[in-house]
Amino acid sequence: MKKALNGTVSWVGKIDWELTRFHGDEYSTHKGSSYNSYLVEEGKTVLIDTVWTPYAKEFVDNLEAEGLLDRLDAVIAQHAESDHSGAMPELMRRRPDLPVYCTANGVKSLKGHYHQGWDFHVVKTGDEYDLGNGKKLVFVEAPMLHWPDSMFSYMTGDAILFSNDAFGQHMATERLYNDLVDQDVLWAESIKYYANILTPFSSLVKAKIDQVLSLGLPVNMIATSHGVIWRDNPVQIVQKYLEWSQDYKEDRVTILYDTMWQGTRVMADALAKAIAEASPSTTVVSHCLSKFDKNDAITDVFRSKAVLVGSPTVGKGILTAVAAALEEIKGLRFKGKKAGAFGAYGWSGESVKVISDLLKASGFDVVDDGIKALWNPDDEAIAATAAYGKAFVAKLG
Question: Are residues 256 and 174 in the same domain?
Answer without folding.
Answer: no
